[in-house]
Amino acid sequence: MPERRRALPFIILRSTLFAILPGMEFALLAAAETGGDARVAQAALMPWFVPTLMWKHPDARSATQRRAMLAA
After folding, report:
1. Would you tell me how many other CB atoms lie within 10 Å of the CB of residue 40?
2. 40: Cβ contacts below 8 Å, ≥ 6 apart
3. Which of 4, 15, 38, 64 is most deeply buried (CB count within 10 A of its CB)?
4. Rounded Cα–Cα distance for residues 53 and 59 (Å)
């Protein structure tokens, strides 16, 4: 149970970050629709988009690691 309490802020943070991702995608679409340079918009968003999408809590374990821990 204490592990779940510790994980809650990270779950909330990740959920918030995933809510931001569609906004980043719409920025690229808006740049293309208004005559802006879509490549420049994408290049500007890429340093934020990929880490936000791929972020994982440092204590997170893979499914294989969890199964091994449960089997032990």
Report:
1. 11
2. 31
3. 38
4. 17
pTM of the entire structure?
0.47
Per the structure, the complete domain to which residue 8 belongs is given by 2-71
Q: What are phi and psi of 65, to 5 degrees?
A: -65, -40
Question: How many CA atoms within 13 Å lie on the side-chain side of 52?
Answer: 17
Q: How many domains, the chain?
A: 1
Burial class (CB in 10 A: 0-12, 13-18, 19+), 4: exposed
Neighbours of 47 (CB within 10 A): 9
Cα(7)–Cα(30) distance, integer angstroms: 36
Query: How far from 21 is each of 50, 66, 68, CA to CA, in Å?
Result: 10, 29, 33
